[in-house]
Specification:
By secondary structure, the chain is an all-alpha fold. Strands 1-2-3 form a three-stranded antiparallel β-sheet, with no helix packed on it. The N and C termini lie far apart (about 65 Å). It has one domain: Amino acid/polyamine transporter I. InterPro entries: AA_transpt_TM. One of its GO terms (molecular function) is L-amino acid transmembrane transporter activity.
Length: about 450
């Protein structure tokens, strides 16, 4: 039976429309090529599963670093910075959506970089994308090890818990398509509720307890030493702001983060733990981490899967092995998930301080995912418009886009410097947990 011939549809602006052609023999996709019943179908997740999984990647345990950031910055500056960064990233989300609609054949941020800056942009953006999610996967493994330590009362060496997190993450992330296993979407949705539940449990607990778990347990009424405005050093302030960049994504998430950050820090002050689930005492810590553990596992699976899938598609794109169950297909896929897992495991073991790792990710890589590329995207699509109509709105948006690029670059350079200084100072002043350490990492403050 011969192939059907199709005229390639084009939008009014001349760009190709990314459409899947289907008949009884095959489907064709602009990114994945020919999709048959003999191999995985990467486009059948469905809107409900997609929504659940996207929400799960947004609501992560990084929210628990925000009370610590507020301790460094103070309540008012910390809240203002969170709202400003949220506004920046919300605008960036809009630009990504608009850019994709204008350029339907763009698959990832590297395609956008290639369109705007040629091969150098393609390689730089692609590398930043992979490295970002690998670091996030490392923070997920670290979060799992903290959770296991809390639930088991440090029942085993922390290095063992990190290794367990890596093995579980590899096994689950190697499930090739989320659409073929619909239960993943529902697990993701359930994990949103459990993770959020864990956060709200500790938020309520710190509000009703007598004092934070790490505060001096002496008689009398304990008064929180929270600060309205703090006086941090430049490196500490920029590192705290970078930890906010790591998680701040949309209005709903930002509202939740503000509520949690304000309440936990208000009641705990400088005795807030990092992650903050340890602030409410041993019993509540076990309960909270018990609720959070499924969500942590699901998040780690997803953030290993994302960069692995990206590399896998780039390796086999245009080849029949991409969508066929061949030896090359499976060796390539498992090699990608294993490679990402190993690198993330090394990161989690080498930087075993949760708050410092979150700050470093946000500064070095989070800005490259939320600021500079999006400013460039708007300029790429709308710069020529100024030749025909240099309106006040166009001038304002040009200035705004340039500001976004410059502010993202500043945050990346200064934030990375501040995060590195914080990591060095942590080890210099208190020794800090050593790399591949057996020490309990669920009691840091």
């Amino acid at each position: 039976m011969g192939e059907k011939k199709h005229d390639e549809p084009v939008a009014l602006d001349g760009s190709k429309i990314d459409q899947i052609y289907e008949d009884q023999t095959y489907s064709h996709d602009a990114v994945f090529g020919e999709i048959t019943g003999d191999g995985p179908n990467y486009r059948n997740v469905g809107w409900l599963g997609t929504a659940a999984l996207m929400m799960k990647t947004q609501i992560r345990l990084g929210v628990l670093s925000i009370p610590v950031a507020f301790d460094t910055l103070g309540l008012v500056p910390g809240g203002n910075i969170l709202c400003v960064i949220a506004a920046f990233t919300t605008w960036s989300d809009y630009v990504i959506d608009d850019f994709k609609l204008r350029h339907r054949d763009v698959y990832g941020i590297d395609d956008a970089g290639g369109l705007m800056f040629g091969n150098p942009g393609r390689y730089q953006f692609g590398f930043a994308f992979c490295l970002y999610w690998v670091f996030v996967a490392g923070s997920g493994m670290l979060g799992i090890s903290i959770s296991l330590n809390a639930v088991s009362t440090h029942g085993a060496c922390t290095a063992i818990f990190v290794a367990v997190a890596a093995i579980v993450g590899f096994m689950l992330s190697s499930i090739q398509t989320l659409g073929r296993i619909s239960w993943v979407a529902w697990v993701g949705l359930f994990c949103i509720l459990t993770s959020s539940g864990a956060v709200f449990i500790v938020t309520i607990a710190v509000g009703v307890q007598d004092r934070p778990a790490s505060a001096p347990q002496i008689g009398g009424v304990w008064v929180s030493d929270y600060k309205i405005v703090a006086s941090p050093s430049f490196s500490d302030a920029i590192a705290a702001a970078s930890s906010i960049v790591f998680d701040c994504l949309c209005t709903v998430v930002t509202s939740v983060y503000l509520a949690i950050g304000f309440v936990v820090y208000y009641y705990c002050g400088s005795y807030v733990a990092s992650p903050a689930l340890g602030s409410a005492g041993p019993t509540m810590k076990k309960i909270s981490y018990g609720f959070a553990l499924p969500g942590l596992i699901a998040s780690t699976m997803l953030v290993i899967h994302l960069p692995a899938k990206y590399i896998f598609i780039r390796l086999l794109q245009g080849s029949r092995h991409l969508t066929a169950n061949t030896v090359v297909h499976w060796v390539s896929w498992l090699g990608c998930t294993l490679g990402i897992t190993v690198v993330a495991y090394i990161i989690a073991s080498a930087i075993p301080v949760f708050n410092n790792l979150v700050s470093l990710i946000g500064a070095l890589l989070g800005t490259m995912m939320s600021f500079q590329p999006m400013g460039c995207m708007w300029l790429y699509d709308h710069w020529s418009q100024g030749k025909m109509d240099r309106s006040p709105k166009w001038i304002l948006m040009v200035c705004w886009s340039i500001f976004i690029v410059l502010s993202g670059t500043f945050l990346m350079i200064a934030g990375t410097y501040g995060s590195v200084v914080s990591i060095v100072n942590s080890y210099r002043e208190s020794g800090g947990p050593a790399a591949w350490s057996c020490a309990d990492n669920s009691n840091s403050t």
